Amino acid sequence: MQDKTLYATLALAVLLALLASGIAPYDHATWLLEVAPVLIAAPVLLLSYRNFPLTRLLYLVIAIHALILILGGAYTYARVPPGFWVQEWFDLSRNPYDKLGHFIQGVTPALLAREILLRRRMLAPGKMLGFLALCVALAFSAFYELIEWWVALMAGQGAEDFLGTQGDPWDTQSDMFMALLGALLSVSWLARIQDRQIARQGLPSPRA
């Protein structure tokens, strides 16, 4: 019952944030592009909950990821207020909020890949499991960069808010580096929490 209460609270928080962000975003097209992963993931998580519920940790990380995306969609990543605060505190040349987004973009896929591989008994905990989780996270990050490129080709100058490069010629590389750091966090420290929760929650493997 505690798990269901937690999951309902997370889902409600994400839903309310999504609705609030869509009332008057900085740019409606950019908002839709940024929150699209949330709109895609939500029904998938809902439909898979009965047969393949995830760990509490992973649901929490996914909710945090969704909130980061939603806030970025509301303001555009280059204009998120907390990012300006960090920029001022550390005397940075750009709003760094998008790097937080790419960091969590490494955390989530790595944890998800790791959990699926473990619970399907494809791999046991160890170096190979961590390596493959890293590979999945970096592949996802690279694919997202391709999506940004395709959007830029189709939208032209209007894609600048979605890309959020802020004039940085190394934006793509630094995005993927942040995703790598997030994935490393997943396969090191967070992996231990994930393993304990899989054991304690007695989570099932997917039905054949």
Automatic annotation (TrEMBL):
Membrane-crossing residue ranges in chain numbering: 30-50, 57-80, 100-117, 129-152, 172-191
Keyword set includes 4Fe-4S: no
Domain of life: Bacteria
Alphabetical keyword list: Membrane, Transmembrane, Transmembrane helix
InterPro entries: YjdF, YjdF-like
Pfam family, one: DUF2238
Name this polypeptide is given: DUF2238 domain-containing protein
Organism annotation: Stutzerimonas stutzeri (Pseudomonas stutzeri)
